[in-house]
Amino acid sequence: MKKLIRELIVLGMIGVLTTGAFAQGKGGDKRPPKEKSKVINPDKREPPPKPPPRERPPKDNKKP
Question: What pLDDT does 14 receive?
Answer without folding.
Answer: 92
